[in-house]
Amino acid sequence: MQITADQRRELEKTARTGQPAYVRRKALVLVNWADGRSVHEMARIFRVSRQSIYAWRNGYGREGVKGLWVHRGRGRKAKADLEELASYVRQSPRRYGLRRTRWTLATLAETVPSLKGFSPFGVQKALARAGFHYKRGQPRLHSPDPLYEEKKGLWTRR
Questions:
Q1: What value does the mean pLDDT of the chain take?
Q2: Are 74 and 123 in contact (CB under 8 A)?
Q3: How far is CA 150 from the centre of its chain?
Q4: Contacts of 136 (CB under 8 A, 6+ apart)
Q5: All residues at 6 or more sequence positions from 28 whose CB lies less than 8 Å from its CB, including other chains
Q6: SS3 category, 123
Q7: Of 14, 27, 36, 45, which has fewest CB within 10 angstroms of its CB?
Q8: What is the pLDDT of residues 63-104, one digit of tens each?
Q9: What is the percentage of the chain residues whose pLDDT exceeds 90?
């Protein structure tokens, strides 16, 4: 692969400081290719396919460093309907026949149609994509001691 001096400087800078890390890796592969290493050798060293290296070269040739980035819309499409999830989260679980006042990850997976079959972690990721933050409810500690509030005040004051 042949590149100009300006392209070499650009790729070397990207290989050192580019963000995210996968862009640095791609730039490093292209610099090594320009230095005379074979595609087969680089594929083995960097543990990627030769087709990937050729695709990176083509992307760089078309768009420069921007061609090394992963473009939006790539990859598997999300199965969760985020608007549907938001409409459920903003309402009480009792509205859907559940005998509880707060949502759990498990009850969301059982109730929201687009989340059927999701693991609790999958539901948590869908909530994050929808802009919600899951917080587990904390048990409230209470003592039958009539002086509990007064005693508690001693150790909660700052």
A1: 87
A2: no
A3: 46
A4: none
A5: 15, 46
A6: helix
A7: 36
A8: 999 999 988 877 778 788 999 999 999 898 999 999 988 899
A9: 59
Name which of 94, 90, 96, 86 is nearest 127 in CA terms. Answer: 86
Total residue length of the chain: 158
Domain positions in the chain are 5-68, 82-129
DSSP 57-92: HHHHHHHGGGGGSPPTT-SPPP-S-HHHHHHHHTS-
CA distances from 29 to 3, 33, 45, 68, 103 (A): 13, 6, 10, 11, 48
pLDDT tens-digit profile of 16-51? 987 889 999 999 999 999 999 999 999 999 999 999
Pull the structure tokens for residue 118. Answer: 């999701």
d(CA 68, CA 156): 54
